[in-house]
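A quick word before the example. In earlier lectures we treated sequence and structure as two separate objects. From today on, think of them as two lines of the same record. Here is Class I SAM-dependent methyltransferase written that way.
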Amino acid sequence: MNSCILCQSTESKTVFNENGTPILECQNCGHVYSSYEQEEHYEGYWDGAEQTYDLEWWDNAHRAVYADFIKTYLGESKGNLLDVGCGLGFFVKAVLTQKPGWTAVGYEISKQAVKFANEQNGMKTVYAGLVQDSKLPKESFDIITLWDVIEHIPKPHSLLTYLHGLLKPGGVLFLQTPNFPIQLTKANLKVKLKGMKEGVHYLEAKDHVNNYKMATLAELGKQCGFTKPEYKVLMPILSVSGSKSKLAVYVKLAYYFFTKLVFALSFKTINWNNTLFLTLKKP
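And the structure line, produced from the sequence above:
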């Protein structure tokens, strides 16, 4: 990628270099993107001949944030939800279990992940393929969610515009993605302390091809027809990747409470959380 997806400018500067792959910041609008040329519909994230899944991470560690989401956004007794890039189906399962009046449908590009969701997770409303090819009825969903999806998509405008059409008037689009300024600070600290090491994915330069800040993620939504961007700080994933330390989880929780306080005291202008949680409205 050699131009910004938000303003099409080719003027950029390198803000991080991950083992030879520059991560660039647009000099015009501030959007950050990887120089790595990823295919638009990458299917390899979940697949592999002998693929096994860390269920402690994908299931148990995610339960708190899923419960927080359901409590925060699914206040109505019934509704229709679509989860795009639903992976192994654990979020769809959480909605159906905790909100029995709601329907929940998941779409996932990986056939192998969907097989697990159907056969091991018992999710009969999780389907394989691109959601754009689903022929779902227009204006049929109250809320559409994308958990850790938007950063993987090189050119997200067509997807979000399509999802805009699937939402009912007044419906909500929910986007969750790493908070780039915080992730960059952490990556620079790791390099300063231990040096750049081969095989370490500091910012996932070949996977996270678009990296978002509060302003740029909201701008993406605006360009796709959405309004009223609102950020919240939800519970973190109760695990630390690469570590089984319970102390690390407690530190992560403490940091979450700290960032939530700062966010509130700054009237939602200072977001030091590791993750961005954004809702947008369809007018």
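Notice the following. The two ends are 32 Å apart (CA to CA). We will return to this example when we discuss secondary structure assignment.
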